[in-house]
TrEMBL record:
One of its GO terms (molecular function) is serine-type endopeptidase activity. This is Outer membrane protein. Signal peptide: none annotated. It holds the Pfam family Trypsin_2. PANTHER family: PERIPLASMIC SERINE ENDOPROTEASE DEGP-LIKE-RELATED, SERINE PROTEASE FAMILY S1C HTRA-RELATED. It comes from Orientia tsutsugamushi (Rickettsia tsutsugamushi). Transmembrane segments: none annotated. One of its GO terms (biological process) is proteolysis. One of its GO terms (cellular component) is cell envelope.
Length: 258
């Protein structure tokens, strides 16, 4: 009898302890891991860099005059524009840099500005070894232009921006990084091409490659099909070639820092 009494007493005591413990657990507030207040997603935009640069890039066309015969056997002339590639205005007087192979064979050249206005361009000079051509336009309106940066200061891993007119789509912006420097593509003169993964397609050739300071560090020149690899002529090489072409001098390897 005493054993049964003590057994009931022990069971009652254990139930009481269990109830108290359960209430204690219910009254406790969940403690979540403390999150750092400075943790946030930082999304960078290139808009502020790109916006003033787009208007410095032009589309280049060849203007051909063709002769046709109408239904009443009258001979008529008409002009046909053929899209060639891209270029960039490099000063307020209207000098434009592009690739030599963009304008090769074109007798009459026209450029279309970002605002849609069209101007006749004069070929100042070109060099097919470096693949650089210098054009000149005359405009009564003020021209937006870009300036050269020091391509020697650019580093592998730097972000770059390419602007051009791939397939005639004016003002197309792509970006990537400098994948490598000093690439020799076997043309015999330029031995330090800048390699990039920025998308550069047909129609963007002759257009500029910018750094994040908005300076030209290269002129887009070569794309390896379906590989995502493109190459640009370094701005230091381009700038020296431009100075020679402005003076009417023939570009020789010894003149350039290549």
């Amino acid at each position: 009898m005493k054993k049964a009494f003590y057994l009931h007493l022990i069971v009652f005591a254990l139930q009481g302890i269990s109830n108290v413990h359960s209430k204690s657990l219910l009254n406790q507030k969940a403690v979540l891991p403390q999150q750092k207040s400075d943790m946030h997603v930082n999304v960078n935009s290139l808009s502020d860099i790109v916006e003033p640069l787009i208007s410095t890039v032009v589309s280049i066309y060849a203007v051909d005059t063709n002769i046709g015969i109408s239904f009443n056997n009258k001979v008529s002339k008409y002009q046909q524009e053929v899209f060639l590639g891209s270029g960039v205005i490099i000063d307020s007087s209207g000098y434009i840099v592009t690739n030599e192979n963009v304008i090769a064979g074109a007798e009459n050249i026209k450029v279309k500005l970002h605002d849609g206005s069209e101007l006749i361009a004069e070929l100042v000079g070109s060099d097919n070894k470096i693949n650089i051509a210098l054009l000149k336009i005359n405009s009564s309106a003020a021209l937006s232009y870009a300036t050269f940066g020091d391509s020697n200061q650019s580093r592998v891993g730097d972000q770059v921006i390419a602007i051009g007119s791939p397939f005639g789509l004016r003002g197309t912006v792509t970006n990537g990084i400098i994948s490598s420097k000093g690439r020799d593509m076997g043309n015999g003169i330029v031995t330090d091409f800048i390699q990039t993964n920025a998308a550069i397609h047909m129609g963007s050739f002759g257009g500029p490659m910018f750094n994040l300071e908005g300076k030209i560090i290269g002129i887009n020149s070569i794309h390896v099909s379906y590989s995502g690899i493109s190459f640009a002529i370094p701005s230091n090489t381009v700038l020296e070639a431009v100075e020679c072409l402005k003076k009417g001098e023939k570009i020789r390897r010894g003149m350039l820092n290549v």
